[in-house]
Amino acid sequence: TVLVIGANGQVGSVLTEALQDKYGKENIIASDLRKREDFDGIFEVIDATNFDRIKEVVTEYKVTQIYHLAAILSAKGEENPLRTWDINVKTLLNVLEVARICNIEKVFYPSSIAVFGNSAPRNNTPNDAYLDPTTVYGISKVDGENWAQYYHVKYGLDVRSIRYPGIIGYQSLPGGGTTDYAVDIYHKAVLNETFTCFLNEDTALPMIFIDDAIRATIEIMEAPAEHIKIRTSYNVAGISFSPKDVALEISELCPGFKIDYKPDFRQDIADNWPKSIDDSEARMDWNWKPDYNLCSITETMISKLKEQYKDHLNLTE
Ligand code: VAH
Fold first, then answer.
1. Which residue, by CA, sits nearest to atom 4 of ligand 1?
2. Cα–Cα distance list, 36 to 40, 69, 95 (Å)
3. Which residues of 295-308 are buried (b: 16+ CB within 10 A; e: fewer)?
4. CA separation for the pair 7, 22 (Å, rounded)
5. Among 36, 116, 203, 278, which has the highest number of CB atoms less than 10 A from its own CB?
6. For residue 180, how far is its CA from the centre of ligand 1 (angstroms)?
7. CA distances, 17 to each of 7, 13, 35, 39, 93 (Å)
8. Can you give the residue ranges of the NAD-dependent epimerase/dehydratase domain (predicted)?
9. Site to substitute for ligand 1 among 14, 74, 115, 199, most atoms within 8 A of C-beta
10. How many other CB atoms are there within 10 angstroms of residue 126's CB atom?
11. Could you count the other beta carbons within 10 Å of the beta carbon of residue 138?
12. Ligand 1 geometric centre to CA of 313 (Å)
């Protein structure tokens, strides 16, 4: 069985469904701090800062794989740095220790482009760039990558990791990220509301569509162990774009779309992140390649969100 920790999150919620489709609902244990009432499947409440609770669920369900998707993201994380550090690191160490003690076959650990800082080239940032992250979230992810590699080298634990770019999905509103503008913008466009962007118009960032991110996650986990050459974390890229690029793309489908720009503290975070990512190692080692570009992302986001808001839109039209 597969345990998903953080199953209510932006990635966790979609990944859980994809895993249920692939391996059967009876083999997926979803978990998070609070039970999701409308959840169709096996759900256990787990606070991942509690080692015993994770071990209890792993033992009870004979878990063989763990996907650890619980963390406090970049922007939210800056509100309380030491708490962010404590939660992001303690939860990962609990997962790695339970995995070691219970002989878990495979662990997935999500890292992020937030691990890069001013020392990394801004464009086509290489996998082995020097990491000097500027957010606590980024620091905790660099730390997590090194712990993942340590548990692989010292204990032979099969931990695999991807540095997610900003993830764009229609299934949930993300919480606390610096790239979240790229999700909110589509909701505002579909609701015919002006979008106020918290980054300035030419801030290009590496992004990936949710379906590509989920596929990358499952593909790296299903690759033969000998293909996984990097045990800290793999760069993975979808596409890079700026608020201006995505606003232009949206205007093609939503002619009256309006945007204005009010950069806030998240501009400083974004200014220290790469504009684009070199993911050639992922392509070489486990055949990674993205399917979605900005045009197909926009088409999919707009049509899915129109579907979600159809009752609301009929009421207002
Ligand atoms: C964040 N969406 O903004 C996350 C992610 C690369 C961005 O780490 O914090």
1. 177
2. 9, 16, 22
3. eebbebbbeebbee
4. 16
5. 116
6. 8
7. 9, 7, 15, 10, 26
8. 2-236
9. 74
10. 16
11. 24
12. 30
Rounded CA separation 312/309 (Å): 5
Take atom 7 of ligand 1 and give the residue whose Cα is closest: 166
Could you tell me if residue 177 is left (phi over 0), alpha (psi between -120 and 50 degrees) or otherwise beta?
A: beta
* pLDDT single digits (tens) 89-116: 999 999 999 999 999 999 999 999 999 9
Amino acid making up residue 314: N
Structure tokens at 204: 């290009």
> What one-letter code names the amino acid at 78?
E
Tokens of 110: 């999500």
**Residues with catalytic roles:** 137
pLDDT of residue 313: 80
ipTM value: 0.92
